[in-house]
Design goal:
Layout lengths: L9 E7 L3 H12 L1 H8 L2 E8 L15 E2 L2 H6 L5 E4 L7 H10 L3 E4 L2 H18 L3 E2 L11 H7 L5 E7 L2 H13 L3 H10 L8 H4 L2 H14 L10 E2 L7 H9 L2 E11 L5 E11 L11 E8 L3 E8 L3 H21 L21 E10 L5 H11 L4 E7 L5 E7 L2 E2 H13 L3 E10 L5
Parallel strand pairs: 1-2, 1-4, 2-3, 4-5, 5-6, 8-10, 10-17
Antiparallel strand pairs: 7-9, 7-11, 9-10, 11-12, 13-15, 13-16, 13-17, 14-15
Helix pairs in contact: 1-12, 4-5, 5-10, 7-8, 13-14
The chain binds NADPH dihydro-nicotinamide-adenine-dinucleotide phosphate (NDP) and L-homoserine.
């Protein structure tokens, strides 16, 4: 039966999890309840919150609404909307499927879950006529999913480049600006509430890869999962890489890149990238995120803000909560998943970019010629070469023109086997065209 306007006086909300994000959601929901009631046209009431440890003291929620059994939240027939901020794949997936099948609308910040099981959840939401909103899953406070889904739906997105992980951006910023050491800055980022429960997801790029899959799916109206994303994290980045980037007026950022190739396939990847200092993304420091969108008619757009932390993420969740609650009050649901284009995923080897390769070589006559020949024989054109050091440990820094991943990888393989190269110290991709 459809709801008549003005019929609903109160909307009951259940929450799965009450950690960094959930506790901010609960606090703001209680502090701003009067404004929210006006904005929705009905009162929003948090009625049950599932946590692991019910006896832990929590300032933001009364112990009377805590439960150690998340199943109770998703089964409670009085609950209209479930906010999922517990994280992880299971039991979150089963709980959300149960909630959806019980007719509840969902708000989630769980990018890992959406990037792996999004299709199943979206299909279930569509079948049950409920909303599944997830603005907080990418870019924390930054409104980016709704602009892609609604504001830019009349345009064609060609490419998205994003700094979408606060923890790694914080680490890279501190290494670049203060010469800090990786392990100690990671601890700081954890203490500030930016990192995932297992920070491997941040530093190995998996968190950014999940977000890249979500962005690509929305931008290109296709289903993209985390398995479609080529992913490399920042654990291999050394202070020497940062110094070399600095010397050539670049910074190293962990970028999530999603683009349409010449053959109308989708390429999605996450890797440390050299960004020219004059590019807007180079100015994004600490835990801030930014998503740079290149659209056919709109041109370049950049969405910038706090990408992690309790209150910023809660802001996005509460925005979704009010949108879903308004839908309930007025009747109907919001815009769902759009996957009509069903574009294929590009093969990794075909993707083209510029590279900076750092080699440890012996400083002997003929070495440079041999190295240049190895690049040329694999069809990789060199833009510049710089040498530093003499004698046993000279360093060659080679910047290439655009080359395919396949050609580059064959070149690196040949360099590693060459008798004139002691080691390939690093291979970094570079944004932008040669100047
Ligand atoms: P936390 O680890 O701080 O909180 C997780 C909460 O879920 C805790 O309250 C925990 O209970 C509860 N929980 C976990 N497993 C269970 C379970 N099996 N049953 C009942 N309760 C459970 O995580 P965050 O708040 O940092 O993150 C939550 C989600 O938001 C994740 O999906 C994350 O990726 C996403 N996110 C996080 C951001 C951030 O900056 N932190 C930003 C954007 C998205 P207890 O308190 O008892 O341990
Ligand atoms: N761990 C994530 C980050 C939280 O550092 O960006 C925000 O999704």
């Amino acid at each position: 039966m459809s709801t008549k306007a003005g019929e609903i006086k109160e909307i009951k909300v259940g929450m799965l999890g009450c950690g960094v994000v959930g506790s901010s959601v609960a606090r703001l929901l209680s502090e701003d309840s009067g404004d929210f009631a006006e904005r929705v046209g009905a009162t929003l009431k948090l009625v049950q919150v599932a946590v692991r440890n019910v006896s832990a003291k929590r300032d933001s929620v009364s112990s009377s609404i805590l439960t150690g059994d998340p199943q109770k939240v998703v089964a409670d027939p009085s609950i209209d909307i479930v906010i999922e901020v517990m994280g992880g794949i299971e039991p979150a997936r089963t709980l959300l499927m149960t909630a959806i099948n019980n007719g509840k609308s969902i708000i989630t910040a769980n990018k890992a879950l959406l990037a792996q099981h999004g299709a199943e959840l979206f299909d279930a939401a569509r079948k049950n006529g409920v909303d599944l909103f997830y603005e907080a899953s990418v870019g924390g406070a930054i409104p980016i999913l709704r602009p892609l889904r609604e504001s830019l739906v009349g345009d064609h997105v060609n490419r998205i480049m994003g700094i979408v992980n606060g923890t790694t951006n914080y680490i890279l910023t501190k290494m670049d600006e203060e010469g800090s050491d990786f392990a100690s800055v990671l601890k700081e980022a954890q203490a500030l509430g930016y990192a995932e429960a297992d920070p491997t997801a941040d530093v190995e790029g998996h968190d950014a890869a999940a977000k890249a899959a979500i962005l690509a799916g929305l931008a290109f109206h296709s289903r993209v999962t985390i398995d479609d994303v080529k992913c490399e994290g920042i654990t291999g980045i050394t202070s020497r890489d940062i110094q070399v980037a600095h010397d050539i007026a670049h910074v190293i950022k962990l970028l999530a890149i999603a683009e349409k190739t010449d053959t109308d396939a989708i390429s999605v990847r996450v890797h440390p990238t050299l960004v020219p200092r004059h590019h807007p993304l180079a100015a994004v420091r600490n835990a801030f995120n930014a998503i740079f969108v290149e659209a056919e008619s709109a041109g370049d757009l950049m969405f910038y803000g706090r990408g992690a932390g309790g209150a910023p993420t809660a802001s996005a969740i509460l925005g979704d909560l009010i949108a879903v609650a308004r839908n309930k009050v007025r009747g109907g649901i919001g815009v769902g998943e759009s996957d009509y284009a069903a574009l294929p995923i590009a093969t990794v080897g075909a993707v083209k970019t510029r590279y900076l390769i750092r080699l440890d070589v012996a400083d002997k006559p003929g070495v440079l010629a041999t190295v240049a020949q190895l690049f040329a024989s694999h069809d990789v054109s060199i833009e510049t070469v710089r040498q530093s050091g003499r004698g046993d440990s000279a360093e060659l820094i080679v910047m290439t023109h655009e080359a395919s991943e396949a050609s580059l990888s064959a070149t690196v393989d040949a360099l590693s086997k060459s008798s004139v190269v002691k080691s390939v110290e690093s291979v970094l991709r570079v944004v932008g065209n040669a100047s």
